[in-house]
Structures are given as structure tokens and as C-alpha cells.
Specification:
The complex is a heterodimer of chains A (341) and B (320).
Chain A lengths: L6 E7 L31 H13 L4 E5 L20 H13 L3 E5 L12 H4 L4 H18 L4 E3 L15 E5 L1 H17 L3 E5 L5 H9 L7 H8 L5 E3 L13 H16 L7 E3 L6 H9 L10 E5 L9 H21 L7
Parallel strand pairs in A: 1-2, 1-9, 2-3, 4-6, 6-7, 8-9
Helix pairs in contact in A: 1-10, 4-5, 9-10
Chain B lengths: L4 E7 L36 H14 L3 E5 L20 H13 L3 E5 L20 H18 L4 E3 L15 E5 L1 H17 L3 E5 L2 H4 L1 H7 L5 E3 L18 H8 L7 E3 L6 H9 L10 E5 L9 H21 L1
Parallel strand pairs in B: 1-2, 1-9, 2-3, 4-6, 6-7, 8-9
Classes of the chains: A alpha/beta (341), B alpha/beta (320).
């Protein structure tokens, strides 16, 4: 990706059934905490286009659309809640976004922590029906998005610590995670797109948690570096401050490290920030990382909100766009600063 | 004193822990720290000659109950894909059961439906709580009850369904809250509909006592298990031993369970301490466990198991 200008991404949720328990149409089991998947799509199209336009005016150029249950998959119509988009209706949305001058990139999260949108297929992780499902939905989404670009597969936070509120806790370790990830990446490639994932599978945090729980000794970073294909776009994410004076700074060592390690090992990356913990996290991220990551591999930055694209969260969405705008200005002012190898 | 079960758990199938070293898709399992036998294998680990010798020892020792943990050890007509080389046909298993009964044993089946111990289920272990999974459970329970010709009890396992017990698995899967109870009660109903009494391991009570006491059906026989040394002075003060007392206070039928794995004398100690502590009409008997495959490699383990069961039976007769 060298010699190309970096791109500016905004993650918007079409579907939002990615945290609680799946809707269990087949059995009437209440969710652990009363929350979980919704049966009505939480997406306000009018708001979405307002946010997209504001993002474009602020200098953004790419929307990452997290689809989830937001599309009626032709082979799996039972997964669709009320309000899910038909393939043609989604094509219309994409066409309008592109006419605004924005690229739009698909995302489907296949992490078992964020797979409620899959309904019962989450329960069938790593079986033949599951692999067929994944292949089918990836193909369907690629057909709708048409123009080969990136395809974000998610694959983040697949661990028990992130599933404490699920009725069915389920995650993959070791070789099985890699087997399934490689399968998904190949599904994406076979449709002409480039795979993209969250990079937290490489965090040393998981080694520490395993050791603390008297689990197997792992070296997630080492395994990641030896097994992850370089054609997979990486997004390590960090939502706190980059200031060394902050009392949370000890976390910075473990969470900032992957950006550097990815860069040193020649991975293309689009670092991910958010307004979730700190409103100007992306501003600090851009300021901190731009001079520290090789321009050959720094492909952009992504802003995330982690709230539904619905009226209840209008303020959150625009807050994130405004924070992005400040981050973009910081980058533009830094444009002439040398890269610190 | 009423007749009491003195039982031994024997494994016909043994694919009830971790994934194989390499599975059929080439995925490598995590190296096991609890012994290589805990990794699943694509062949049955059961040697009938040793089994009959063990049963003869068990009979000699005073044992009268055989719990056969079937797993992948039977060729299920409804799910032939689960069989491994060596799995018993239904007719062959019937013959084995008839022969064991002919030796004076009550023979009851066990199928473990805990997500920690379900590798034997093949692909269904990765379809937990789906319509296909529920149909599978009904199918296999039905077939096993048919082969065992309506046994008095059916052990459903349901132990150790937690993260802690699956650290060395490639696929970690466990149910919590409403879902665990929903699926447990489904299994109970499936067994009861066939005129058989369900039986489970009781360790869910250790960390969920209030919920367990409120929700657990008294239709199910309980086996709390403890494999160590009872605390001096206060036998029921420990997290695991307390459950024996709590189950008794709440009028559950019990078959307390011990093991020779960590402390050879555990089983006779357990039966000696618990016999006076549980009302005779709730104490259905005791169950000894070995947790090793029924193969020559582990002959000595099985010998010790039946020997200490014999010690416990002898103590109980002396106590009378």
C-alpha cells in the first residue's frame, strides 16, 4: 500500500446483534441479563446518510458497514429481524453512499463473541453447516458490494472475559481459531476481496489471562507473526489516551505495542480509535502513531462509535464525526513531519 | 440395613475430554497436562478381557452396580457417524449387558451431556442447544434405553460445565443460567418419558447452591463427588463436601461418589463418613470411579479401584 494516500474510515452499524445472546426462536430461553439480540433492526437510514455526509465533509472517504442481521440473506431468511434490508435495498444504500464520493466496505463479524446476528449458526461454530453458512453469507455480501476492496471479518475479543453475559459461552483456542480464520480469509479472497481483521488476537493480554487461570502457556504474538498472512489488513485498536502521564499508562505498553510490532513485521494496518473511552482518542492516536509507523504500511485510520445508528444515539454519532474531524486536522498539519523510523 | 448400591463407573467410550492430538481436519489439539489419555482418539479404548476380570474382582469385592459410560462405544443407528473402530453394535452391547447382569450386577447406562465431556457426540458437541442437538439427545437416549432394556437409572453426567475445566480445549463451550437449566430439564424429561430415573453429577451446587436447591428436580438422583481427604473434625466444611450435607438436608436421593485417583483410601473413607450422615431412605448407595480407559495400560488402576471398593464394603458390613 505504499505511495497511496492514507484513507479515513468510519465504522457504522447496519446490524447491531453482536453482543448479547442470539434470538432463540427455537426455544424460549431468556437472555442472561435480559438484554441481547433485538428482533427489530436498530438502524435509521436518514440518520445514517446525515452522519455519512458530515463524515465526508470532515474529510472522511470510507464507510465500513457492519452488516450483521441487517441484510436478509437469501439462503437464511429466518435470521432477519423486522426492518432488515433486502439485497436490492442494500444495493440502493451502497449506490447512494458511493454517489456521495465515499467508498463503502463490508464487515461481518465472525468472532464468537460478536456473532449473535448468526442466530443458531453461532451455536454451530466449527461444523460443516457453520462453514457453509460463512461461505454463503460472505459470497452474498461480496455480490451485493460488487467492487472488490476490503472485507472486514471482525474476529476480535474471542475469549471468556468478553462473554460473561452470554447464556452460551463459546470460543475457539489454538489451532482451531487459526483453522477457522484461514477458512474465512480464503472465502473472502475467493470472492476477489481482501480480508481485514481486528488484531487483538495477538495481544499478550491473553497470554497473561491464560497463565493467571492456570491454562496453557501461550505466545499469541509469536504465533500471530508466524501464521498471519501479510495480505490480511490489520486493525489493532486502542481507545484510551496515548499520554504517558495518564494513570492508565501501564496499559499503553501492552496496547500500543501491537501497532509497533505489526509495523516492524511488515503488516499493512489501519489503526482503530473510538469515542468510547475518550472523546479525542483518535486525535491522540493520529498524533502519536503517524510519525511512528512506516508510511509504506500505514493505510489509514478508523473511527468507531459502538452505538446503534438510531435516533437515541444521534449525539454519539456526531460526536464521533466531530472527533474524527479534529483528528483529520491534526494529520493534515502533520503532513510534512518526517516519519521517525 | 436396606440393600445399597456399591457401584463402579466403567468407561466403554473414553472420548469425553479434549480434542485429539490431530483431528480429522488436521487441526492440532492443545497438548494435555492431565495425561495423554484425556485426548480423544479415533478408536475405542476398551479391552473386554480386562473388563470381565475387573467385573469378577468387583463381584468378589461386594460390588453390585455397574455404570457403563458409553460415549462413542456404541454404534448408534440414528447417528452411525459417531462410531469409531471398535464401537459395539447394539447386539454386541446387549450381550455384554446380559452377561454382566448374569453375574449379579445392576447395569445402568451413562451418557455425559456436559459440554466439557461431550467429544463423543461428534459434530453435535458443536451444535449445543440447537434443534438438531435436542433431536440428537432424544435419539441417543432412546437407543441406549432400548439396548439397556429400561434400566432403573440413567446417568446424564452434566458435570464441570465451565471455563475452568476447558482451558486445554480448542473449543470452549458451556451453558449458564437459564440455558443450562432449560437443557438439563429437557434431558430429565427425555429420560423420564422412557420410564427411567435420571441421575447426574451434583457439582453445579458448589457455586450455585441457592439456585440448585430452588430449581433441581428431586426426580433426579444426585452424585456429589469428592476425591480428596475429608477435613479433620468438620467433615462437611469444605466447598465440595458441604454439598453432601446440603443435599441430605434438602431431601435429595444420593449416590455419593469417590475415586482412587488422588487418594487411594478416599472411597472407604467417604462411605464410612457418609453412611451415618445420610438418611437410609435417601442414601441409595455409593459409586467408585477410576477415570482411566479399560485397557491393559491401566490394569493396576482398575485393580486398586475394585480393591478399595471391597474395603468399603467390608467396612460397611463390620459397621452393621
Amino acid at each position: 500500500m505504499s505511495n497511496e494516500p492514507i484513507r479515513w474510515y468510519f465504522l457504522a452499524h447496519l446490524g447491531y446483534n453482536m453482543w448479547g445472546d442470539p434470538i432463540a426462536d427455537w426455544e424460549d430461553v431468556p437472555s442472561l441479563k435480559g438484554g441481547g439480540a433485538r428482533r427489530v433492526l436498530q438502524f435509521d437510514e436518514t440518520l445514517f446518510f446525515e452522519v455519512a455526509e458530515a463524515f465526508r465533509r470532515a474529510g472522511g472517504d470510507s464507510i465500513v458497514l457492519d452488516i450483521g442481521e441487517g441484510l436478509v440473506y437469501p439462503e437464511y431468511p429466518d435470521l432477519a429481524p423486522l426492518g432488515a434490508y433486502s439485497p436490492d435495498a442494500l444495493r440502493d444504500v451502497l449506490k447512494r453512499v458511493r454517489s456521495m464520493g465515499l467508498e463503502v466496505i463490508p464487515k461481518l463479524n465472525f468472532s464468537t463473541t460478536h456473532a449473535e446476528w448468526m442466530g443458531c449458526y453461532r451455536n454451530k461454530t466449527s461444523t460443516e453447516p457453520y462453514y457453509r453458512f460463512c461461505s454463503d453469507v460472505i459470497r452474498t455480501v461480496c455480490e451485493i458490494f460488487e467492487k472488490p476492496s476490503l472485507f472486514h471479518l471482525g474476529m476480535d475479543e474471542e475469549d471468556g472475559v468478553c462473554q460473561k453475559e452470554k447464556n452460551l459461552a463459546l470460543w475457539r483456542n489454538g489451532d482451531l481459531w487459526w483453522h477457522d480464520f484461514d477458512y474465512l480469509a480464503e472465502c473472502v479472497r475467493s470472492n476477489g476481496f481482501r480480508p481485514w481483521i481486528w488484531s487483538d488476537h495477538m495481544w499478550k493480554l491473553w497470554d497473561e489471562l491464560s497463565e493467571k487461570a492456570k491454562g496453557p502457556k501461550t505466545d499469541r504474538e509469536g504465533e500471530f507473526l508466524s501464521r498471519m498472512s501479510k495480505d490480511v489488513m490489520q486493525t489493532n485498536w486502542y481507545y484510551r489516551t496515548f499520554s504517558p502521564d495518564d494513570p492508565h499508562h501501564p496499559f499503553l505498553d501492552s496496547d500500543e505495542r501491537p501497532f509497533r510490532v505489526l509495523d516492524e513485521n511488515g503488516f499493512d494496518q489501519i489503526p482503530g480509535g473510538s469515542t468510547w473511552d475518550l472523546e479525542d482518542n483518535l486525535v491522540e492516536m493520529v498524533s502519536y502513531l503517524t510519525p511512528r509507523l512506516s508510511p509504506d504500511h500505514l493505510c489509514g485510520f478508523m473511527q468507531t462509535v459502538w452505538h446503534p445508528m438510531s435516533e437515541d444515539y444521534r449525539e454519539k454519532q456526531f460526536q464521533a464525526v466531530e472527533a474524527f474531524s479534529r483528528a483529520k486536522k491534526v494529520y493534515d498539519q502533520m503532513a510534512n513531519k518526517p516519519y521517525q523510523a | 440395613m436396606k440393600s445399597c448400591y456399591w457401584g463402579l463407573l466403567v468407561h466403554l467410550g473414553f472420548n469425553m475430554w479434549a480434542e485429539p492430538e490431530t483431528d480429522r481436519d488436521g487441526v492440532r489439539g492443545i497438548p494435555q497436562v492431565f495425561g495423554p489419555q484425556t485426548a480423544a482418539q479415533y478408536r475405542l479404548r476398551f479391552e473386554e478381557p480386562l473388563f470381565w476380570e475387573t467385573l469378577a474382582d468387583l463381584s468378589e469385592a461386594g460390588g453390585n452396580l455397574l455404570v457403563l459410560d458409553i460415549g462413542e462405544g456404541m454404534q448408534y443407528e440414528s447417528h452411525p457417524e459417531l462410531a469409531v473402530p471398535g464401537s459395539y453394535s447394539k447386539d454386541a452391547l446387549r450381550e455384554l449387558i446380559v452377561r454382566a447382569r448374569g453375574m449379579g450386577f445392576t447395569v445402568v447406562p451413562k451418557l455425559n451431556f456436559s459440554t466439557c465431556h461431550d467429544f463423543w457426540m461428534g459434530p453435535y458437541a458443536r451444535m449445543v442447544s440447537t434443534p438438531e442437538y435436542y433431536r440428537f439427545c432424544e435419539d441417543v437416549i432412546g437407543e441406549v434405553c432400548e439396548v439397556f432394556d429400561n434400566p432403573p437409572l440413567f446417568h446424564l453426567g452434566m458435570d464441570e460445565e465451565s471455563e475452568t475445566c476447558q482451558h486445554y480445549y480448542n473449543m470452549v463451550c458451556f451453558r449458564r443460567g437459564e440455558l443450562w437449566w432449560h437443557d438439563l430439564n429437557f434431558l430429565f424429561r427425555t429420560v423420564l418419558r422412557l420410564g427411567v430415573r435420571p441421575w447426574i453429577w451434583s457439582d453445579m451446587i458448589w457455586d450455585h447452591e441457592e439456585e440448585f436447591l430452588r430449581r433441581m428436580s428431586r426426580d433426579a438422583v444426585q452424585s456429589n463427588w469428592f476425591y480428596g481427604q475429608f477435613p479433620e473434625g468438620e467433615a462437611f466444611s469444605g466447598r465440595h463436601t458441604r454439598a453432601f450435607r446440603i443435599l441430605e438436608e434438602n431431601r435429595f436421593d444420593q449416590i455419593p461418589t469417590g475415586c482412587m485417583m488422588f487418594r487411594e483410601s478416599n472411597f472407604p473413607e467417604l462411605s464410612k463418613i457418609l453412611t451415618p450422615a445420610i438418611a437410609p431412605h435417601h442414601l441409595l448407595g455409593f459409586l467408585q470411579t477410576t477415570w482411566y480407559p479399560m485397557t491393559e495400560t491401566y490394569r493396576e488402576k482398575h485393580r486398586i479401584s475394585t480393591k478399595v471398593l471391597g474395603d468399603a464394603v467390608a467396612d460397611s458390613r463390620a459397621f452393621r
